[in-house]
Amino acid sequence: MMSKREAAQELTFAHRSPLARVASRPSFFSRYAGPALSPEDIKNLRTVLGCSTRELGDAIGVDQKTVIEWESGNLFPTKKYVDRMVALKEKGPGSVPKKARGAAPPPMRVLSDPAVWEIVRKLVAHKKLRDEVTKLAASYPDPADE
């Protein structure tokens, strides 16, 4: 058992260099480190799942660009995303939702399109156009209801 003085010295050491203290305990990293995925592992996972970088990113909650960066080795996934990819691998190829070619793009991509904002400006400026669009839109389902 440590004396109060030894405990105080250890706390002082921990305050000065917490990483050195933690790194000196190999069990710390083995407890918190999950399975690591190399860039090749991520590419192989996509091959096994039969999905694109966009589909994998959508399935685990990241952008396509992030998956591409992981596969190139410029970035590395955190434990949270590694765990999600491992879970997808365990579930198999049917675990990644496929998007049909020509399917509607994600809403945020549509909102970033300048042409959409040109239409919105015209709708705001012209009441007759707004009335015509309202009639036309009545025949389409509301995505909020789906």
Q: Rough shape?
A: elongated
User: In the residues, how many domains can be counted?
Assistant: 3
Using the coordinates shown, work out and report the CATH topology of the largest domain: 434 Repressor (Amino-terminal Domain)
Oligomeric state of this protein: single chain
CATH class of the largest domain: Mainly Alpha
Number of strands: 0
Query: In terms of structural class, how would the helical and strand content be classed?
Result: mainly alpha
CATH-derived architecture of the largest domain: Orthogonal Bundle
Distance between the ends: 64 Å
| H-E order | HHHHHHHHHH
Q: Mean pLDDT, nearest integer?
A: 80
What about the largest sheet? none
Helical element count? 10
Question: What does this protein look like?
Answer:
The protein is an all-alpha fold. The chain has helices at residues 4-16, 18-23, 26-32, 39-49, 53-60, 64-72, 79-91, 107-111, 114-125, 127-137. Helix 4 packs across helix 6 (64-72), helix 5 (53-60) crosses helix 6 (64-72) and helix 9 packs across helix 10 (127-137). The radius of gyration is 26 Å and the shape is elongated. The N and C termini lie far apart (64 Å). Mean pLDDT is 80; it is low at 11-20 and 26-32.
